[in-house]
Amino acid sequence: HRHAAGARMGVLSKADLSAFDEKQATILVVTDEDSIPAIDQGSEHMPKHISVVYENDARMALEAIRRGEPDLVFIDLGMESYDPLRLCSGIRAFDTTRMAPILAIASKDETRQLVRALDLGVSDYLMTPIDAQELAARVRTQIRRMRYLEQLRASFDQTMEMAIIDQLTGLYNRRFLSNQGTRLIEEAHTTEEPLAALMVDIDHFKMVNDTYGHDAGDLVLKEVSARLTTSVRGSDLACRTGGEEFAILMPRTPKESAHDIADRVLRAVNSVTVKLSDGQTLDVTVSIGVASLDRSDNLATILKRADEALYRAKQNGRNQVID
Ligand code: GH3
Ligand code: MG
Ligand code: MG
Ligand code: MG
């Protein structure tokens, strides 16, 4: 384990590491002792901006960890007022605290406890009497490791987001619609619950671009998208499927409500007046096609019916809902 962490740390430059060391970090020390002198003695070797908080109540400690307050947790295995191993497993049991770095403090006659603590997933340990320099080194390593994981997680989240979110509008993209939409439809079939689909297309959008320019067109797309998002439920899936076309999948929505919701979406969008940078304003309308899930439908077939309805709405003069 130690080796793997070390190897991964190897991808970091000295500058990365010292950047990690420069950030403010908080150590929570869970012990029923008054203090651990080595921490104070070792402070000159510690990363800068470390603050140390003592807590003798394990439940309070767990709460603080859940709130994400400490960057590193010390657990004194010699604690008598509470079972320190229970605290270790308590921390590892929750998604929000699972990754918190824990450093166990053990005396020579607590080897059995220490083995169990390591089993429960503590990150590292120190034997008493604690050597101040060793303590500082282990603190630095844990804090760097934690910062590195945070950085990895942030870039992972960003990559995931870019894969499923349309950059211009912030709506889900077509790829996400096809993955998540397929899932929603399978679920609706399994639970025999209704599901409705809307296809939304901005009217005469080419004219907006041609008359006012591409930037004005982009602004309209953003405004319309914002209205789409806020006029449906959080559990509905609103996606930008193409240039100025959107699909909305609405689980647990019966046929009778779908048309009303589409009307509401239409009014929400059509009440938008987009202000252009030169002060001009322009009104936007959309056309909407509605379809409801049939027994034999898959994602493609229900969207195709909604698209056919949309086509009729266009033929019929635009700025309307057809199902
Ligand atoms: P209709 O009422 O029949 O839907 O007419 P329309 O002009 O909206 O439809 P058409 O499909 O002919 O034109 C869509 C236009 O959308 C063409 C293209 O210039 C524009 N478009 C597509 N993607 C973008 C984009 O990301 N930004 C901007 N500004 N325009 C886009
Ligand atoms: Mg078109
Ligand atoms: Mg259009
Ligand atoms: Mg179109």
From TrEMBL:
<dbReference type="GO" id="GO:1902201">
    <property type="term" value="P:negative regulation of bacterial-type flagellum-dependent cell motility"/>
</dbReference>
<dbReference type="GO" id="GO:0005886">
    <property type="term" value="C:plasma membrane"/>
</dbReference>
<feature type="domain" description="GGDEF">
    <location>
        <begin position="193"/>
        <end position="323"/>
    </location>
</feature>
<dbReference type="GO" id="GO:0052621">
    <property type="term" value="F:diguanylate cyclase activity"/>
</dbReference>
<feature type="domain" description="Response regulatory">
    <location>
        <begin position="26"/>
        <end position="143"/>
    </location>
</feature>
<protein>
    <recommendedName>
        <fullName>diguanylate cyclase</fullName>
        <ecNumber>2.7.7.65</ecNumber>
    </recommendedName>
</protein>
<dbReference type="GO" id="GO:0000160">
    <property type="term" value="P:phosphorelay signal transduction system"/>
</dbReference>
<feature type="modified residue" description="4-aspartylphosphate">
    <location>
        <position position="76"/>
    </location>
</feature>
<dbReference type="GO" id="GO:0043709">
    <property type="term" value="P:cell adhesion involved in single-species biofilm formation"/>
</dbReference>
<keyword id="KW-0597">Phosphoprotein</keyword>
